[in-house]
Amino acid sequence: MSHPMLPGASHDEMAEQLFVRDLKGFVSGAAEEGQRAAAAALDPGAGHNARADETFDRLHGFASFRSWAALRRESQELLWDAVGASVRRQAAELDAHAAAAPAIGSVAIDPDFAVPSHLADHDVHLMPGGYAGDDGGVAQGALMDRGGAVYMLGRNGGLMNDRRGHTAAAHLLHRFPDLAPRRLLELGCGIGASLVPLAGYFPEAEAHGIDVGAAQLRYAHARAAHLGAAVHLRLGDALAAPFPDQSFDLVFSCATIHELQPGTIGAMMAECHRLLRPGGVVLHLEVPQRYAEMDLWGQVRGEIEARYNNEPNWKAATSADYAVLLGQAGFRDIATGYQDATDTAARGNAGFGPTSKGVFRSWAVMSAIR
Amino acid sequence: MSDTRPRTHPVPRHAIAGMSESDDQLIGMVTALAAQLAVTRERLDTVERLAEAAGLFGPDAVDRYVPDERAQGARDAIRQTLIARIFRPIRDAAARTARALEESGR
């Protein structure tokens, strides 16, 4: 499956993007082993009350760590630099493709929308301009889409980057085989890589998505339309979605929680409860790691991501007790666990269980009924 | 309304604790240089394969190639110019130091 909105890559651009992919593989593979070993040697002990923080601090005393951390960040900055240059070369062409998209779905850009403060001046994953960057066209969405596919190293459905949407759908079809939503909403839909596949499993539903970036949404709308999907997109905050109470039968998110303002996961659960009609279904899909179950290096890596890759809510998202939070928000029939990553969802139990099979092989899922 | 103008650099960009800004910049430049080298090497590979497909010459012919004296001289000049230009800051810094020492009468 492909679509004309995805920016292409010339011979040299492709070579540079593949270089980024393989540099990242080196940095987080062979070059990371020594860091893990150093962290183990610097471990202040399980009894220390800030064990990962302390290890993270101690590692900075070594040039070997500082250089590696700098190279790790450079690999990320190079990714955006390389993809950004390629997108800028194609910007006019991409805007023309967007203008030529089939007239289905809609996109609403409210000029008075205020980007949540933690995203306005915080470029998540170091993407210059962040989710809200806007050149008036679709470029920032194209950057997000192509950059995201390179960032995922092909492990989330290749250039479609849509495996999370199929995986979320697989969980819904397993837990709620009779679910037939009339209206569904994704919070933090980005360029629609999850919304489009998920909506495809519910063709009778009116599909909506909100996000904080106008360029992301213009791109997402054109991308979806070229794929034949009618989606209705508007600027909105996952903590204060621009819809009346009880206006959806299904509200979901895919890897949005770990980009929320720290301390607001409960508020997002409450917002989902407000948006759903009684009997409606909520589903959140997140990274499969659990902070408490990570080894020391996993926790230190989380510190590195937070500090040097602008991941605001990673620790909170991987530490939250979602069953409790969903319960506090008023949901019932709560289930939490792991869903096998898939490119094709089907009814019946296709891989939901209590154990993660690992990053990119499983996704954490939490679902409940209002 | 929030300022959503696109940027070419990420914010915030925290300093790597204990690392000098210039070291960080140097790693950035080396990374970018390595990327350009990879792109150039891949382009050369494409040229060799296309030439072979067109019946001209392939990677093996390149490996077997031995420059004659004139070609070798030209390449030596290319290589030495490249070294002098890339490592110019080292030479310039030493020259500045020498001049400063001379002027201070030491």
Q: Judging from the principal axes of the Cα atoms, what is the shape of chain A? A: globular
What is the N-to-C order of secondary-structure elements of chain A (H for helix, E for strand)? HHHHHEHHHEHEHEEHEHHHEEE
Note the total helix count of chain B: 4
* Beta-strand percentage range of chain A: 15-25%
Strand content of chain B: under 5%
Which key terms come to mind for this protein?
heterodimer, A: 370 residues, alpha/beta, 9 strands, globular, B: 106 residues, mainly alpha, flat
Describe the structure.
The complex is a heterodimer of chains A (370) and B (106). Chain A is α/β, with parallel strands linked by helices and 370 residues long. Chain A has 14 helices and 9 strands. Chain A has helices spanning 11-27, 30-42, 51-59, 63-89, 91-99, 117-120, 139-151, 163-175, 195-200, 214-226, 265-275, 296-308, 314-319, 322-328; strands spanning 106-108, 183-187, 206-211, 231-235, 248-254, 276-286, 332-340, 352-353, 362-369. Chain A has a 9-stranded mixed β-sheet. In chain A, helix 9 (195-200) links the parallel strand 2 and strand 3. The longest helix of chain A is centred in the first third of the chain and has 27 residues, at 63-89. The radius of gyration of chain A is 20 Å and the shape is globular. The two termini of chain A are 35 Å apart. The mean pLDDT of chain A is 94. Chain B has 106 residues and is mostly helical. In chain B, 69% of the residues lie in helices and 0% in strands. Chain B is built from 4 helices and no strands. Chain B has helices at residues 21-53, 59-64, 69-86, 88-103. The longest helix of chain B is centred in the middle third of the chain and has 33 residues, at 21-53. The model of chain B has no long low-confidence stretch (mean pLDDT 89). Chain A binds chain B through residues 11-12, 15-16, 18-20, 23, 57, 60-61, 63, 66-67, 69-71, 73-75, 77-78, 80-82, 84, 111-115, 120-123, 126-130, 132-135, 139-140, 213-214, 307-308, 310, and chain B through 1-14, 16-19, 23-24, 27-28, 31-32, 34-35, 38-39, 42-43, 46.
